[in-house]
Design goal:
By secondary structure, the chain is of the alpha/beta class. Helices cover about 40% and strands about 20% of the residues. The protein has helices spanning about 30-40, 80-85, 125-140, 170-180, 200-210, 235-245, 265, 275-280, 285-320, 320-325, 325-370, 370-375; strands spanning about 50-60, 60-70, 75-80, 95-105, 115-120, 160-165, 185-190, 215-220, 250-255, 270, 380-385, 385-390, 400-405, 410-415. α4 packs parallel to α8 and α5 packs parallel to α6.
């Protein structure tokens, strides 16, 4: 472990100022600073470094490469001299993930810092698969692999977005097969780098462009297979999270069956090949026309069966007596109404006759019992002081009386009680 607090030993020659003792009035020289940096870097030894190869330029004197951090954007320059090149794998190329033993060197004359490689090897597939499995487990725990969050593709998209390499077989397969299935399909193709260190940023930029287009209803990311290490970009966490956060349904058509990239699990739909993706995103016009013909035939059959059933039912109804001669019902009811009307009239006449007789009888009884009838026979009603006189003692001599007869009334004076 390097002690970062330790200062490199430096004895300035010719009265030079040490960098740690420099000031505006006593600056150190470039050589003095460079010497301190060189000696400090030399103490780092030869660490083992893991990263992704972004450049691999082979020259006669050696190989000059750049190594990028796996999880970030940090980059270092590598120098592999020709005497060492024969001891490292011959198939290392840009996009590979490797481990190197490199000694950092600072050059005083150029001010450059480089790492001289003494050994290099590929990262084992076991290590890569283990890291991918850890990432898969983390994404699953966050719910990004949950089938319930995957969106359904539109039946007939207005515009299909396609992210793929320029002039690749994958692009031709998707476009050709989609147009064969639905000739009027519209595509918006955004070309991207699908391998190497620019794969992830290039695909992310294309994805952002298509996801922001309101006319794009589904996005296909297509490559068409390749070596496992060539597809590592499609298992990059940045790409996976961008796909999960996109508002447009996404189809993964990487086309690698043996070791599927994690994009297949995060995307809304996985297509085994670019051709399969074309079949998934647009319907087959011939198949849809066949379905329409089948539906029309079924509808015609059902309608014919229903009409036949209703015709039979109508014939059965018409065969019934009530519908075969409906006027007979009216005639029978008319006769019944006439009879009921005659009975009603006879009953009403009898009731009226009885009523008239009862009224005449009541009138005669009332007339016989009426006080007026009694007065008509010559009787009179005598009243004194408002009371009817029923006894002679009620009429003392000289009392004023009112006498009511059949036709009017008159006043009279009582002469007192007389003997019987």
């Amino acid at each position: 472990m390097v002690d970062t607090a330790a200062r490199p030993a430096f004895a300035p020659a010719g009265g030079q100022v040490h960098p740690r003792d420099s000031s505006p009035d006593r600056p150190c020289s470039v050589a003095a600073l460079g010497t301190v940096v060189r000696d400090y870097v030399a103490k780092l030894g030869s660490p083992w470094i893991e990263g992704e190869v972004t450049e691999w330029n082979v020259r006669a004197v050696g190989t000059f490469a750049r190594l990028r951090d796996i999880d970030g954007d940090a980059v270092i320059s590598l120098t592999i001299w020709s005497r060492v090149r024969d001891r490292i794998p011959k198939d290392i190329k840009a996009g590979d993930r490797i481990v190197v033993c490199a000694k950092p060197e600072y050059r005083l004359k150029s001010g450059d810092l480089s790492y001289v490689v003494s050994s290099a090897k590929h990262v084992g597939l076991g290590d890569l698969l283990e890291s991918l499995e850890r990432l898969r487990s983390r994404l699953r725990a966050e719910g990004l692999l949950d089938p319930g969050r995957k969106r359904r593709l539109p039946f007939l998209p207005h515009t299909v977005g396609l992210i793929t390499g320029k002039n690749t077989d994958a692009e031709k397969d998707v476009l050709r097969n989609a147009e064969l299935r639905w000739p009027h399909v519209r595509f918006r193709v955004v070309h991207a780098v699908v391998q190497g260190d620019q794969c992830v940023p290039s695909v992310l930029a294309a994805l952002r462009t298509l996801d922001e287009d309101p006319e794009v209803d589904v996005i296909v990311i297509a490559r068409g297979g390749g070596d496992f290490q060539d597809l590592l970009g499609f298992s990059d966490e940045r790409m996976l999270r961008a796909v999960a956060a996109a508002s447009t349904p996404i189809v993964s058509a990487i086309g690698h069956e043996a070791d599927r990239p994690l994009l297949d699990d995060v995307a809304d739909l996985r297509a085994s090949t670019p051709t399969d993706a074309a079949k998934r995103v647009v319907p087959d016009v011939a198949e849809q026309l066949a379905l329409v013909r089948q539906a029309r035939a079924r509808l015609t059959t059902r309608l014919s069966q229903r009409l036949q059933h209703e015709q039979v039912h109508l014939a059965q109804l018409r065969s019934r007596p009530a519908l075969r001669a409906p006027e007979s019902l009216i005639q029978d009811r008319a006769a019944w109404v006439d009879q009921a009307l005659a009975r009603g009239r006879a009953s009403a006449d009898r009731a009226l006759t009885r009523g008239h007789a009862e009224i005449a009888q009541l009138r005669a009884s009332l007339r016989a019992l009426s006080p007026q009838h009694t007065l008509d026979r010559g009787y009179a009603i005598v009243q004194i002081a408002g009371e009817v006189v029923r006894n002679a003692r009620q009429a003392p001599e000289g009392a004023e009386a009112i006498v009511t007869v059949a036709r009017g009334s008159f006043a009279a004076t009582s002469h007192g009680e007389r003997g019987e």
